[in-house]
Amino acid sequence: MGKFIIEGGYSLSGEVKVQGSKNAVLPLLAATVLNKGKTYFYNCPKILDVYNMLNILAGIGCMIEWEDDVLIIDSSVITTHIIPEKYVQMMRSSIILLGSVLSRLKNVKICFPGGCSIGTRPIDLHLKALKQMNVAIKDRHGFIECHTNKIIGNHVSLDYPSVGATENIMLTAVLSEGTTVINNAAKEPEILELQEFLNKMGAKVHGAGTDTISIQGVSELQSVEYRIMPDRIVAGSYMCAVASAGGEVLLKDVCKSHMNATISKMQEMGCVMKEYDKNILIQAPKKLQSIDLLRTQPYPGFPTDMQAQIMNCFVIADGTSIIAETIFESRYKHVAELVKMGADIITDGRIAVIKGVSRLNGAEVFAEDLRGGAALVLAGLGAEGETVVNHAHHILRGYENLDQDLGLLGAKIKYTSD
Q1: How many angstroms separate the CA atoms of 121 and 238, rounded?
Q2: Is 70 helix (H, G, I), strand (E, B) or coil?
Q3: Would you call the peptide bond into 113 cis, given omega within 30 degrees of 0 as the criterion?
């Protein structure tokens, strides 16, 4: 499962390039099934979730090739509508293959997906929408089976602006008959990225970034070259690393407009942020300031994927901070591990009250999910002594070369697969 070993107490300085976006690339990988040709990806992150998705694509007949840092996917031939169960159980995001394979083959069979255990995350919104698009669905023995003779566009209103449901509807509707309109759609930057990718293949999608998205069905799509946008969560994680350990770092290849909520909270804690085109310089204060209340919300609010990392800053801030986690009900699994390191945190349901301490102490801790695991690594950077973060495979799902990036900035960190 691997582990990260961190010797704390070293401030960070220098510059680091932010990797391509995990949350953006996974639906794009699923979308390659639609074009019956070749897709060339640039800036694709080499992370565990990407490799799992590529294994799924290979399992249904796609040809996968890396040429240096260019990922090439040939989806000319799809040999089965059954999604390989082994890899689906490793990552929640695999559910987005439901829409793309159904759109291509009019049939799909997929097991209920796995991934981080941060909440129930039901897929009923996905299935309810597909039923409105002339899709018959059977749910039995842990598998979802979908079939249609043709996908017919419709007006779909989501009860909640779910990112995954919005993506699945978009992927299903691209090759449909008629027009599909999604009301109360998710507005995340990753939705806009999917729209741009689909349109570059010849789709007709409009409205991403607003709460209403329109997809006019087309008969076929074409091969495409595409560069993946930078990862706003990784960029935010590195900001929290600097805030926790101290120092000054230039983050390169950052989309500032995607990160307004995170940048605002970093400034509220006392960090100095300077923007230079696609780069952001962050300078940590001598002492972080607490934040009265931080509430996770759908975009453009503060992202739930940054909650654990910023909590790591609150534990050493001057004063008391409160977090209200409104998205997932089980996203405080890192709290017990931070407490092992000396943090003063009390949770009550979805509320966490964090009283700042002067410094954390190194300890042996265990990652239980992707973002919580990353937060523990960041906590180790500023802690006194050695921190060992076990179950590092969770972290590898979303961070490429985390130890190398932090090491270049002056951190004493190493990864071992033992």
Answers
A1: 27
A2: strand
A3: no
Long-range contacts of 123-128 (CB under 8 A, 24+ apart): 123/95, 123/164, 123/165, 125/158, 125/159, 125/160, 125/162, 125/165, 126/95, 126/98, 126/99, 126/162, 126/164, 126/165, 126/168, 126/169
Q: In Å, what is the CA distance from 5 to each residue of 12, 56, 231, 402, 413?
A: 17, 32, 24, 12, 6
The pTM score is 0.96
116 catalytic? Reply is yes
The full set of domains in the chain, from first to last, is 3-19+230-416 (3.65.10.10), 22-227 (3.65.10.10)
Q: What is the DSSP letter of 354?
A: E
Q: Output the known binding site for UDP-N-acetyl-alpha-D-glucosamine.
A: 92, 121-125, 305, 327
Distance CA 77, CA 63 (A): 9
Please report where in the chains the tokens 């992150």 appear, as a residue: 45
Q: Tell which residue, 269, 294, 274, 331, has the closest CA to residue 121.
A: 331
Three-state SS at 194: helix
> Cα torsion for 381, 382, 384, 386, to the nearest 10°?
-10
- Interatomic CA distance for residues 343 and 116, integer angstroms: 23
Structural Rg of the chain based on CA atoms: 21
CA distance 284 to 12: 10
Q: Where does the pLDDT of residue 114 fall: very low under 50, low under 70, confident under 90, or very high at 90 and above?
A: low
Among candidate residues 44, 62, 116, 313, the one labeled active-site is 116
Give the pLDDT band of residue 141 (cuts 50, 70, 90): confident
Binding residues for phosphoenolpyruvate: 22-23
Overall residue count recorded for the chain in this entry: 418
- For residue 328, which of 384, 279, 372 has the smallest C-alpha distance? 372
Q: Which amino acid is at 143?
A: F
Task: Give residue-wise pLDDT tens across range 74-85.
Answer: 999 999 999 988
Locus of tokens 């699945």: 168
Q: What is the pLDDT of residues 173-220, one digit of tens each?
A: 999 999 999 999 999 999 999 999 999 999 999 999 999 999 999 999
Q: What is the biggest distance separating any 2 CA atoms in the chain, rounded to whole angstroms? A: 64
Number of Cβ atoms within 10 Å of the Cβ of 303: 24
